[in-house]
Request: fold
Amino acid sequence: MQIPHISVMPNEVKEIFKPIEDGYLIDCTLGYAGHTHMLLDEKNSLHVIGCDRDEEAIEFSKKRLEKFKNRVTIEHKNFSNIVSKYEHLPIRGILADVGVSSLQLDSNDRGFGFDSLKLDMRMDTAQTLSAYEVVNRYSKNELERVLKDYGELREYKKIAKLICDTREKNPIKEAKTLADLVGRKGHVNGRKVSPATLVFQAIRIEVNQELNELEELLRSIKMSSIDECIVCIISFHSLEDRIVKQTFKAWSKSCVCPSSALKCECGNNNALGWIITKKAVEPTSEEIKTNPRSRSSKLRAFYIKRGAREG
Ligand SMILES: C[S@@+](CC[C@H](N)C(=O)[O-])C[C@H]1O[C@@H](n2cnc3c(N)ncnc32)[C@H](O)[C@@H]1O
Reply:
């Protein structure tokens, strides 16, 4: 079986989940089951609930995980809805590797890659909003918002205007056309990144509501009844990493009184647990060499233990 995706930071993920021997682990982004396969192989008493919103990934992983079928539950879902469904079980680990899979990026008909013949970018192909609608039907103001908020492009007005002027003549139907239009080469915002990279990132985030999904996942973990669990999130750009970093920081706070309070009135026992990774973990240079797509990944982990101080 040819595996179309190389999992990022496998050893680091293994290390983070080392304390877990049994119970359940939720893999929120099953993808091609690389991380799940590795964890099931290593831990004979672990059960994994694997979730993905991409039907193609689900079908592939069902086959790949056939030999573990008694210890796997597979769900075609958005991960924002997964924790509430399974929180009654002894969940000991939650993993989310929130990027795009290599198969999604490399498929000519999915619209994620610069050379794709479609303008799609939907992870869940049953959803209605696609990149085609964003590029061809969004107003100039809406396009500016997407490019500014999700691409952090300084030239968001200029690029939105370029897209609007072009689509007035003919609709933009292919990812290829969009990539050529905004530029596949060059530097943006003083960084070694092309305008197309950031424009595609922005549109993908809008189409898949990626930041909302991540925020909602983290909120659902906090609100759940899970009492002891390791949460590990791998992200691929600074917007996501910022959300994870700030959330974990807030979760680790024991005192939640407003900064204006003269004395603590919250009980000073509100920490959800503690941060495992004081700094984000990044792939080694060897990993980046063999899997260049791992280069922007950052891993952060948190140990949930409700009602306990760090120890
Ligand atoms: C980087 S891949 C995961 C690869 C996987 N860890 C492996 O080792 O094979 C990310 C996957 O997450 C899925 N995904 C992204 N956002 C999602 C969401 N909000 N809900 C469910 N799945 C999501 C994508 O469809 C994709 O298959």
Notes: The chain has a mean pLDDT of 94. The longest helix spans residues 156-169. The radius of gyration is 21 Å.
